[in-house]
Amino acid sequence: MNQQTATLSHATSSSRVGIAALVFVMGAFLVFGTGFASPQALHDAAHDARHAMSFPCH
Amino acid sequence: MLMRILAGGLIGGIAGGLVVGAIESVTTTPLILHAEQFEVKDVASAARILLVHSDAQGAAGEGGGLTRTLFTFLATVLVAVGYVWMLLAAMFFKGAEINARTVVPWAVAGFFAAGLAPAMGLAPELPGASAAALEARQVWWICTAVATAAGLAAIFFGRNVAWVIGGVVLIALPHVIGAPQPAAMESLVPAELAGEFAARSLVIQALVWIVPAVIAGYAISRMKPA
């Protein structure tokens, strides 16, 4: 019984870490793509927003 | 839970990003447009700046700024969704309850890490202000945000005083090292304009953390557990 509970909570906590990591990376990807990525088209489109949110820009 | 976090973050990021985008269009964007008038007056760097800005201004020039405005809204929404996902991921990782009220201290911490701390070394700047090499500033900005977030986590969740001291050291470290600065402090933009912009930008950054997070927290608290 104890063993089963332990296994269950272990599975839950590892899926929690997995979900947290996945969502965190997705968020970081969006912020990086909008605020930092260097391709000219991305820079131009995001220009005013980059300045407004104080990401280093040109 | 994954779907609730993703959906809640999308709702908060899109709704909150649109609100902040609207505020930008009457606060920071007019100052950026104003500053660009000084920027292109400088003949020496006009060619480079025209090159850098030709697309943005070309698109803006013909469409009365509509394209440019839409892209600014879009970029703000994307950053808002990104920030709120990172924030929700951190809360979920810590097992914190997520609702409109509980997200606020996390959002404030996010603003400290990605807003106030980088602004200590790299003040929000208008086009035309002098600055060090872009890549060096980007690296310093990201390192400062990560170190400050880690430092805050150590202070709030650390088990003893050693963690608190370590957190304080982490937060201070990027400023001891110092942000990349330009060789000479010169700007084509009037100081009043630059000062006004820095203040408005910090308010925008606070809002882009707090508004989407509160909306997302509210949305998630109203969703039925999947």
TrEMBL record, chain A:
Origin: domain of life: Bacteria
Transmembrane intervals: 17-37
Pfam families associated with the record: CbtB
Keyword terms of this UniProt record: Membrane, Transmembrane, Transmembrane helix
NCBIfam families reported for this sequence: CbtB (TIGR02459)
Protein name: CbtB domain-containing protein
Organism: Microbaculum marinum
From TrEMBL, chain B:
Residue ranges of the TM segments: 70-91, 103-123, 138-156, 161-177, 197-220
Source organism, top-level taxon: Bacteria
Pfam family of the protein (one): CbtA
Keywords: Membrane, Transmembrane, Transmembrane helix
Matches recorded under InterPro entries: CbtA_put (IPR012666)
Designated name of the protein: CbtA family protein
